[in-house]
Amino acid sequence: MPTTTHPRNTDELYQALQDNDRRPYGRTRTVTAEELVEAAEQFEDPLALVRALLELQEAYTYGSEPRKSPVVFARLLTLFDEQPDVFDERLRHLLFWRFKWVAGALRALPEIPLAGLRQWLTEMRHRYEKAGLDLQPYYGQAYLLAAHLGEDVTPAYELWAARARSRLSDCEACEICDRARYHLQAGDDERALRTWEPVLDGKESCQEEPARSVSYALLPLLRTGRTERAVALHVAGYRSCRRNPSMSAEIGRHLEFCALTGNEARGLELLAENRNLFDEVDSPLELFDFLTGVEVLLQRVELLGHGELPAAGYAGRTWTVTGLRAEVRGRADDLAARFDARNGTTAHTDRRRARLDRAPLLDALELTLRTRSLDEVAAPAAAPPARPVAEIPESLPELILRARALDEQGHPDAQTCWARLRTLAAARDYTHPEDPAVGPLVRLRADLLADEANRAGNKDDFTVSVALHEEAAGLYEDAGQPGHAALARACALLAAAELPAENDDAAGGKAAALTAAHASLVRLHEETAGLAPHQEARLLRLRATALGLRLQASGQEEHVAPVHAEVDLLETFAARHDITAQISGAQMLRASTHAIRGDLPAAVTALDALLHRLRDHGPAWHLPRTLALRGRLRLGLQDPRAAHDDLAEGLRLAADWPADVAGTARLHADLAEVLMHLGRPDEALRHLTRSAELDLRGGSRTEAFCTYSNAAQLSLDLGRVEDCIALLDSLLAEPDVTAGELDDRLVAQLRLTRARALHMGEDLKAATAEFVALAAESATWDDDPGSHAMIAAETAVLLGESGEFGRAREAMDQALAAHARDPRHEQLSNCLRELARHQAQQQGPDGLAGALALLADAGRVADEARAAGYEAHGRSLDSALAYEHGRVNAYAGAYEDALAALERALALVGEPGAEQDRAGEWAECVRLAGAVEGIYLERTAPALARLDAAVSRLTALGHTAESEPLSSLAARLRDEE
Predict the structure, then answer these.
(1) If you write DSSP's letter for every residue of 335-366 in order, what string do you get?
(2) Which of 59, 114, 546, 818 is 20 to 30 Å from the Cα of 8, by its Cα?
(3) Structure letter (DSSP) for residue 598
(4) 3-class DSSP string for 799-856
């Protein structure tokens, strides 16, 4: 299928070539380049064909199709020999440069005889000598061939490295990498890293660098103790080469790095993200390196006992780690044998064995904000407590009785027993014990349904919970257990009241539903005879809970006393029968009631007494949640240090119990909030990610993604851009996200944060593409035009930064239309001003009209805000607009207009006082006015008078930092007088 319109003339062909050059390397770009060569052949213009062939060779080279690159180059060389005048200096340079591309392509193909490789180098030398070109590039390719063959590389290296660079030498970054790899192969990690420094520091770069150097430098960095540097380079380096067929070898080395640092789970995640490479890499040499890295990872996972885990591999079947490893090993062994046979050495087999034999360098290394172990991947819901769990009875009757006894106490170990019984009862060969103490099979089925219903309710899946409780009640009736049947129905009543109300008054509807549920619970309690004490206590607890939830929904004072009355009944009954868990539950409800009505000191006092009781009498598993509540209340009382102490202790004690019982995820989230209040955001970030991962493992996926979204934003606020992007890439690759099962607005928020992070990380192209996609998607959100307004406005700014002002204006018009429906005054004003600045800065006088039109729109937004009584959170919209008029006119060379606008801005800002709120903005207006007046309008005297007066005023008010740029500008003007 054609991918581009067939060019009708050479002008259209050149435009199509230019458009294709902007596409990322891959099949689309390559197929388009092939079509454009076909089109160029129809024109009687050899120059058009040359340019099309050059584009096609580039697409093959960077699209990992080395077999086709030499064929295209042969056509170019023939054209050069037949029509050398077609090749100007630039095209001639490109032609001779690409001799090296062909040498690399031939090395990558084991079917090309060694004599053919040497013959090509001879041809390259002959051509260079004939053209009067320096031979340093030839010696560079001779060294790379020697290194590929595994020969004694030192003579070849010295012949190359000792020669001065020439115009056709590989770029500085590539040559640095080749030199560093020579030292690395010699076993000198330190010298290799010193050589690599300019590339790893970002001072030298190219199409392939620093991604290639980073992938080789990771293990030397670890071996020399530079772990933090290795982590940072892995995160940034991986992102620059993921899913790229021409960088599959680099991906393989990143997978190896994960395997050797205890990050096998991340390695499997990255492998899944790069599954396309199994089928898209056409270079045997690149594929060999990639597959060897894959095998290092899979071998490590299998050695750790997780060979049964699923793994992403070749398309067309489902793979386990063990199965994929066997497949990869066979293919990589075959490639090594083919290269060694061609080369007459054992170099590739030896290199492969050396990588596979490497021992892990570290047991654990935190690479990203989302570090997981293989055990967590294998059993995501399992979170074994640090406290030893009581041994599960081998005897089936004992196991059933143990589960019921623990369940009566509310003990967390009941979960383990029920899980084991669920597995046993589901087996085909299950035989229920004939034991009167155990009862019939129907009762066990009811028990298992009740446990499943409780777990659904804990996850707020109330519809499922109601159905399961009702079914369990029926089975309990069949088993002759009216007390248990009544409890199951009571649980169903409360769960049904928790279902979302369908009317507009959600709070009122829920309060009414809970009132009705409480009445039904009281009737059920009164009508059920023969309840055991623990059953009656649970019914009383459900009654009190219903009224507590009603108070929470309504917030009405009249609903407080009924809660206290029910709590008193529960506590009195539980104390009479020594039911410790329900005594604790009653006291927790009392404290919560105080908190809901806003009496935080009374709530803390009640919790103090409860904690004293729990430490003396138990149950111990109530301690973490009680400490968590007191910690939240202390934060509400503006005592973050005391809150931190409570939450930290709660988290320590929670380690003894299952996460869902102890509320561990909430503890981490609350501790993160407290740490933000204490000014410790990096610690807060760790707790946020831990909270999210626990929610994810516990099945609360929406809550988990919301928390992860907050963590991503915090990491971005902290300037940890690569960490933010890595976290979001991991989340967006989750199966329920890719399958479209997660809330689309939540996914959009994750993508929006990622786009902002890409922009902050100076990846403007990727950020703009994501923003454009989000703007198109959010345009369909008829229920939320305000969000579309903000996204479209940000998209316009990025398009403007990319120089695409036509598309930027279209996006901004969409934003303004959405803003008219749901105003976003400050965000729109900020984006309009920023886009105007980009247009004036990039286009100068030619862009002034467009920039002023944008500022006129910003003026209308400011007028609307003023009429609506809106107050900006940051700078005044009017003063900011006047300042931008000054800056835009200055960029366009309209200096008188610029100075007049800045005078207006100064008047709007007003003279600064001792407070900080206006000093910075006022000083910046003075600085720009001084620059326009003194430098561009050449009115030095008034400019200096303005600046000196401002410096004196700011200094007298104590704003020394704000005065420094003004003093520097004044000094510059005096120097230039």
Answers:
(1) HHHHHHHHHTS-HHHHHHHHHHTPPPS-S---
(2) 59
(3) T
(4) HHHCCCHHHHHHHHHHHHHHHHHCCCHHHHHHHHHHHHHHHHHHHHHHHHHHHHHHHH
Alpha-carbon span 828 to 854, nearest angstrom: 11
The amino acid at 305:
G
Asked if 320 and 311 touch (Cβ cutoff 8 Å), the reply is yes
Please name the residues in contact with 800: beta carbons below 8 A apart, sequence gap of 6 or more.
808, 834, 835, 838, 839
Separation between Cα atoms, residue 203 and residue 181, nearest integer Å: 18
DSSP code string of 42-79: TSS-HHHHHHHHHHHHHHHHHTT-TTTHHHHHHHHHHH
Grade residue 382 by pLDDT with cuts at 50, 70 and 90. very low
> How far apart (Å, rounded) are the C-alpha atoms in residues 529 and 482?
8
- Nearest CA-CA partner of 834 in 781, 779, 794: 794
Kindly report which listed range (484-488, 521-525, 729-733) carries the lowest average pLDDT score. 729-733
Element (DSSP H or E) covering residue 599: none
Asked if residues 283 and 108 have their Cβ atoms less than 8 Å apart, the reply is yes
Separation of alpha carbons 400 and 167, rounded Å: 82
> Long-range contacts made by residues 432-438, C-beta under 8 angstroms, separation at least 24?
433/396, 433/397, 433/400, 435/397, 437/397, 437/401, 438/397, 438/400, 438/401
Q: What's the mean pLDDT in 769-784?
A: 96
Answer for the pair 208, 229: CB distance below 8 angstroms, yes or no: no
The whole-angstrom separation of Cα 49 and Cα 40 is 5
Name the residue with tokens 């199409």.
207
Rounded to an integer, what is the distance from CA 824 to the centroid of its chain? Answer: 27
Q: Are 68 and 98 in contact (CB under 8 A)?
A: no
Give the span between the Cα atoms of 526 and 519, in whole angstroms.
11
Angstrom distances, CA of residue 358 to CA of 256, 257, 558: 10, 11, 71
The pLDDT of residue 8 is: 87
CA 495/CA 476 separation, integer angstroms: 19
Contact yes or no for 771/791 (Cβ under 8 A): yes
Please, are residues 413 and 403 in contact by the beta-carbon 8 Å criterion? no
Both tokens of 501, joined, read 């109300």
**d(C-alpha 657, C-alpha 651), whole Å:** 10
pLDDT-based confidence at residue 22 (cuts at 50, 70, 90): confident
Compute the distance between CA of residue 170 and CA of residue 518 in angstroms, rounded to an integer. 80
Cβ neighbours for 215, distance < 8 A, ≥ 6 positions apart = 237, 241, 249, 250, 253, 254
Q: How many residues does the chain have?
A: 977
Q: Is the dihedral of CA 653, 655, 656, 660 positive or negative?
A: positive
Nearest to residue 824, comparing CAs of 815, 833, 811, 834?
A: 815
- Distance between first and last Cα of the chain: 67
Concatenating the DSSP letter of every residue in 503-545 gives SS-HHHHHHHHHHHHHHHHHHHHHH--S--HHHHHHHHHHHHH
Burial class (CB in 10 A: 0-12, 13-18, 19+), 31: middle
Nearest to 175 by CA among 164, 189, 185: 164
Compute the Cα dihedral for 716, 721, 725, 726 and give only its sign: negative
CB count in 10 Å sphere of residue 194 = 12
Give percent of the chain above pLDDT 70. 98
- In sequence order, which residues have a C-beta less than 8 Å from that of residue 187 and are 6 or more positions away? none
* Tally: H helices and E strands in the chain: 49, 2
| Tokens standing for residue 72 | 């295209």
**Helical H runs in 274-387?**
277-280, 284-303, 321-343, 347-356, 374-378
